[in-house]
Fold this sequence. Notes:
Shape: rod-shaped
Strand content: 5-15%
Number of strands: 14
Oligomer: single chain
Low-confidence stretches: 2-7
Order of helices and strands: HHHHEEHHHEHEEEEHHEHHEEHEEHEE
Amino acid sequence: MHPKSEARITGREAVNLKQFNSVLRQVFLLPVAALLVVAGALYMQIRAANATVNLIQESDARISQATMVSKLIVDEESGLRGYETTGDAQFLQPFREAESHVQNEIQNLDAMAGADPDMKHDLADLRDEHQTWHDGFAVPVIAQVRGGGKTDDVALNLHGKVLMDGVRHDINDIIQKAEDNRTRRIAHWHRQVHTMLLVLLFLALGMGILIGMFTRNRLHTVSAAYRTSLEILGRRAEELFQSEQRLRTTLESIGDGVITCDAAGRIQMMNPVACELTGWNQSEATGQPLQRVFHVINETTRQTVETPVAKVKRLDRVVGLANHTVLVRKDGTELSIADSGAPIRDKNGDITGVVLVFRDITMERKTQDALIANEKLAVAGRLAATIAHEIHNPLDSVSNLLYLMRNGANPEESRQFMDIAEQELARVTQISRAMLGLYRESKAPVVIDLKEMLQEILLLMERRFIELNVNVSADMPQPVSVAAFPAELRQVFTNRITNAAEAASPGGHVTVSIRPHAAGEPQTAGIDATGQKLPAGATITIADNGSGITAEVRPHLFKPFFTTKGERGTGLGLWVSRGIINKHGGTISLKSDTSERAHGTVASVFLATNPTMNTGRD
C-alpha cells in the first residue's frame, strides 16, 4: 500500500472512530441530561409540595393546641361550677389543674402563631378575656363559697356567663381560622400535585420526542460511519490479500529457505527453496514439528543440534546455528547450511512464533577451503626459493668435503670432514622436517611447543631475512605448550612473520616474543581487548619497525582479497589467519603507528593452553 493512501485510510478510520465515540457519548449523555432536567423539575415540585405539607402540619398543630386550650378552659369552668354548687373542695381540683396550665398553653399557641398578625390579635383578646373571667368571676366565686356566702345571685352568674362566652368565642374563632387555613393549604397542595403531574407528563413527552429524534439522527450517523468502516475494511482486506500475495511471491523468489513456525515449533509455512533444501513439500510439512523436517546435526560430532525454535525461546532473541551444521534432508542426503532464527512477537512482546532463514553453503565451504589451500600454496611458493637455497648450501659443503676426502686427506682430516658433513646433513634434515611440518595435517588437536614451532619457522626463513636485510630477534625464554592443529598455526605465524619482515625497511628489525599466562598467577594473567581476563595460555607478539599501516587501510585488513602488495599478494593472509585463530578459540589483533618517532606494527595472537575448538571459520 502506498504510504499516502495508507495515511488517508488511517485518517478516515480515526475520524470514523471519533465520530462513533462522539455519537455514543451523545446518545448516553442526552438521556442522562433529560433525566437530570426531569429530576430537577420533580425536585422543585416536591420541594414546594413539602413546604405546603409543612404548612398543613403547622395548621394541624395550631388546631390541636387551640383545642387543648379550649379543653383546659372548659375544665376550669366545670370545676368552678361543681365547687359553686356543692361547696366541696374536691370539685375545685380540675379548676386548679387547668389554671396552672392554661397560660402556658396559650403562650405555646402564641409561639405557633409566628408572624401571623390576625392570630396574634386573637390570642391577645383570648388572654385578656380569660384573665378577666378568672379575676372578675372565678376568684370572687371561690372566695364567696369559702366564706359561706350564697352564689345563686342571678346577676353574678349571668356576668360570669357573658365573660365565658367571650372566651369561648375567641377560642372558637382561633380554631375556625386555623381550620380555614388548613383547608386552603390542602387545596393548594392538591393543585401543586396536579401541576406536578402535568409537568412530569409534558416533560416526559417532550424528552421522549427529543431523545427519539436525536437518537434517530445519531443512528443515521452511526449507520453512515458503519458503511464507511465496511468500505475501509473491504479495501484493507483487499490490500492485505495483495500484501500477502506480494510477500508470498517474495518468499518464493528469494534464494534462501524460509520456514515459519508457531510457538510450539510446528511448521506453518515453507517457501519453495526450503522445500527443495529439506526434501519436504508444503502439504507434508505443515503441522509437523520443526525438528522432524529441519533435522540438523553437527558435521564433526554427528550429534543433533538444538533447533532454532528452542534456541530462540531459550535466549529470547535472534540466533544463528553453530558453524559446520549439516541439514539431513528427507532422503538422507546432507547439506552444509548457515541459518538464523528470529522470534515473531505480538503487541505485548510475547513470542508467538519463529521464522527460520537458511541457505545451502556447501559450495561456499568448498570455495573457502580452496581459498585456504591457495593461501597455503602461496606461502609455500614464497618460501620455496629460500628453502631450496638453504638446502643447496649444506649439500654443496658435503660434496666439497667428500671430494677432499677422496683426494689425499689423511685419516685425521677425514674424521674432521666427516663431522662437518654430518652437521651440514643435520641442518638439511632439520630444514626438511620443518618444511614437512608446515603442511602436515592432523585430524585432532595435539600438544605442541610454541617455542619450538617458532624457532623452526625462523630457521626456514633465515635466507629470506638475509635477502630483505632485516634483523630478527626472538624473546622466547621458556617452552610453552598448547593444544592446537600444528600445520594451521605454522601457516599463521609464517604469514605474520613474512609480512613483518617485508614491512620492515632494509636495516629494519623484527621481534618475535612469547609471553605465557598462567592460571591463578596475577603477575602473568592477561587481559583481552574487551577487558576480560584471559585463561591460561600464551600471547605471541610479532613486531616490526616498518612505516606502519595507515588509518584508511586498517578497517579493511581482515577482509578477504584486500591487499596492499599489488600482484604479489593474494589478500587472503589475514583473513585466513583470523579464521584459524578463531577456530582455536583464540584472538588475533593488529596495532600500528605511522608517526615518525614510534612507527611500526604489532601483531598479537593469544592461544589458550586447553582451548574449546570452534570448527567453523569467520
